[in-house]
């Protein structure tokens, strides 16, 4: 039975908390503040609080809520952080982060999705996010250095530009691997180099070299 979106949202938050994906009060609160129904297609509004990915156009998807929860918690967002996202898509992940950090810059390859993300974020009242058209493999040097870089498309490697644009003690979180499955990798920059942690298997749409 459909109960209404605020109730559906609370049900999803309880489920994600019970399953251990949402771990902190502040990330849970960010999920409460950002209406996912504004980031999905109108015809999917009633499915906005199901825990699965949905099509957003251009063959791309908004990630499942538990994946957004896992990545947001792993980033350990702090109020003073400046974050770069690769792969804006619907803008939802950027919107969640915008509630937790000082500024989010997000790069998207597909012009239609740049417009979609900008509109969704404006409607949802997320003001400290800027969406740029570009090839995310190059990062976004204009606002570097970043405290955190989050990649939301499957990447064959951690590109040098991302490493260069990260502050010392900063982290890069990215699904690294092939088409069917990737490993969620967390790379921490130290004065001596990079430390790698692996956070399990995941499935994202692939990073592309050119727009569709
Ligand atoms: N974070 C998004 C989901 C991203 S889906 C959300 O919350 O909705 C992955 C996105 O990465 C797609 O929009 C795709 O167009 C984009 N993408 C793929 N290759 C890219 C590249 N080289 N540079 C920037 N964005 C890219």
Topology:
Elements: H1 5-18, H2 25-33, E1 54-57, E2 60-62, H3 65-75, E3 82-86, H4 92-98, E4 103-108, H5 111-123, E5 129-133, E6 146-151, H6 160-164, E7 166-177, E8 182-190, E9 193-202
Parallel strand pairs: 3-4, 3-6, 4-5, 6-7
Antiparallel strand pairs: 1-2, 7-8, 8-9
This protein binds S-adenosyl-L-homocysteine.
Short note summarizing the structure:
This protein is an alpha/beta fold and 212 residues long. The protein is built from 6 helices and 9 strands.
Structure summary, number of beta strands: 9
Query: Which structural class fits the helix and strand makeup?
Result: alpha/beta
Mean pLDDT: 97
Silhouette:
globular
Verbal overview:
- With 212 residues, the protein is of the alpha/beta class.
- The protein has helices at residues 5-18, 25-33, 65-75, 92-98, 111-123, 160-164; strands spanning 54-57, 60-62, 82-86, 103-108, 129-133, 146-151, 166-177, 182-190, 193-202.
- The chain has a 7-stranded mixed beta sheet with strand order 5-4-3-6-7-8-9. A two-stranded antiparallel sheet has the order 1-2.
- The longest helix has 14 residues, at 5-18.
- The chain starts with a helix and ends in a 10-residue tail after the last strand.
- The model has no long low-confidence stretch (mean pLDDT 97).
- S-adenosyl-L-homocysteine binds at residues 60-63, 86-87, 89-90, 92-93, 107-110, 113, 135-137, 152-153, 205, 207-208.
- The site of S-adenosyl-L-homocysteine has 23 residues, from β2, α4 and β4.
């Amino acid at each position: 039975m459909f109960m209404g979106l605020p109730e559906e949202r609370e049900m999803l938050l309880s489920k994600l908390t019970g399953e251990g994906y949402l771990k902190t009060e502040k990330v849970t609160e960010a999920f409460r503040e950002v209406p996912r129904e504004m980031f999905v297609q109108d015809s999917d509004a009633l499915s906005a609080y199901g825990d699965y990915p949905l099509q957003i156009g251009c063959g791309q998807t908004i990630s499942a809520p538990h994946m957004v929860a896992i990545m947001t918690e792993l980033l350990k967002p702090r109020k003073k952080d400046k974050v770069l996202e690769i792969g804006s898509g619907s803008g939802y992940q950027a919107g969640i982060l915008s509630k937790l950090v000082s500024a989010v810059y997000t790069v998207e390859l597909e012009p239609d999705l740049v417009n979609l993300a900008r509109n969704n974020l404006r409607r949802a009242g997320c003001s400290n996010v800027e969406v740029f058209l570009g090839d995310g493999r190059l990062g976004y040097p204009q606002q570097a250095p970043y405290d955190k870089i989050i990649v939301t498309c499957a990447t064959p490697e951690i590109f040098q530009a991302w490493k260069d644009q990260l502050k010392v003690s900063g982290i890069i979180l990215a699904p690294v691997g092939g088409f069917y499955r990737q490993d969620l990798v967390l790379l921490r920059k130290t004065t001596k180099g990079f430390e790698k942690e692996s956070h399990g298997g995941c499935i994202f749409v692939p990073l592309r070299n050119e727009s569709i």
